[in-house]
Automatic annotation (TrEMBL):
GO molecular function, one term: oxidoreductase activity, acting on paired donors, with incorporation or reduction of molecular oxygen
The protein's name in its UniProt record: Fe2OG dioxygenase domain-containing protein
InterPro entries noted in UniProt: DIOX_N, IPNS-like_FE2OG_OXY, IPNS-like_sf, Iron_ascorbate_oxido_reductase, Oxoglu/Fe-dep_dioxygenase_dom
Pfam families: 2OG-FeII_Oxy, DIOX_N
Keyword list, A-Z: Iron, Metal-binding, Oxidoreductase
Superkingdom, natural source: Eukaryota
Gene source species: Ambrosia artemisiifolia (Common ragweed)
Length: 290
């Protein structure tokens, strides 16, 4: 049996929230949040937009597209990088309606605010000050899984850890399938939908930033029933103009610095070229023992 339950964290909690978030990041590397401040109506509208975008021609200007067959026959995705303002979306010349553009912007802004709160509380829980994700790159990604009778019991994507600091995920309220790997038992733990919550996954860059303290969780979406499944994820990636490295607070004689500072684009390039998708990419930047 799995040895770790996925925590449910109340973001309106007054006392102990920073410590609870740090404990979850160090523990199973995944948690659900409630009372996060994103209106249910906005979440519902964003899903409607995501569903409609997949019905458009795939030559969409301003979006990155991964088609079916590149990862698995059942998976495709659309993503938009670094949405900071509505003008960013307009400048990308997305061939969608004004309402769709506004919904994408409002949703991204709301989730970024949630990420900002989590980042500040993680800093506080670690004895640090400041806005962790101020000015960071982000990516909004919409996923569609074409699950059918033939795909039941099969993976919808690859087992992987996220190439981000953290990922905030709106899962499908109608179709389950997301699973994480329990770091102690190695068993898969299902993350069935919980109404009103968002899922937060700790990524590889959080492991580096915390000098190995945080756990980057392996996860996968599998087909458990023959229904189309959607998910919407915001990835908090990395600082725009700074290298990824652990603050000196995490480094001492008992905890020597594990990773050499690196540029995010360099990390992504190395991760792709080595195909280290299940948590091994940060180890490629570890200091070599003398």
């Amino acid at each position: 049996m799995a040895s770790v339950e996925v925590p449910l964290i109340d973001m309106e909690k007054v006392d102990g929230l920073p410590e609870e978030l740090v404990k979850a990041a160090e523990g199973c590397g995944c948690f659900r949040i409630v009372n996060h401040g994103v209106p249910p109506q906005l979440m519902a509208e964003m899903k409607v937009v995501a569903v409609s975008l997949f019905d458009l021609p795939k030559e969409l200007h301003g979006m990155s597209y991964i088609g079916r067959g590149l990862i698995t026959p059942f998976f495709e995705s659309l993503s938009i990088d670094d949405i900071v303002s509505l003008d960013d979306l307009c400048d990308n010349k997305l061939d969608v309606s004004t309402h769709q553009l506004e919904t994408i912007y409002k949703y991204t802004k709301a989730i970024r605010e949630v990420a900002g709160l989590i980042g500040r509380k993680l800093m506080e829980g670690s004895g640090l000050e400041g806005d962790l994700f101020d000015g960071w790159l982000c990516q909004l990604r919409m996923n569609k899984y074409h699950f059918c009778e033939e795909s039941v019991g099969l993976p919808g994507g690859l087992l992987h850890t996220d190439p981000s600091f953290l990922t905030i995920l709106q899962d499908d309220e109608n179709v389950n399938g997301l699973q994480i790997v329990d770091k102690l038992s190695g068993e898969f733990v299902p993350l069935d939908h919980v109404p009103g919550t968002l899922i937060v996954n700790v990524g590889e860059l959080a492991k580096v930033w915390s000098n190995g303290r945080y756990y980057c969780v392996n996860h996968i979406a599998s087909c458990i029933e023959p229904k189309i499944r959607f998910s919407i994820a915001l990835f908090m990636l990395a600082p725009k103009d700074k290298k990824i490295e652990a603050p000196s607070k995490f480094v001492d004689s008992d905890h020597p610095r594990l990773y050499a500072p690196f540029d995010y684009r360099e990390y992504v390039k190395v991760r792709k070229s080595t195909r280290e998708f299940t948590g091994g990419a940060p180890d490629l930047f570890k200091f070599t023992p003398n």
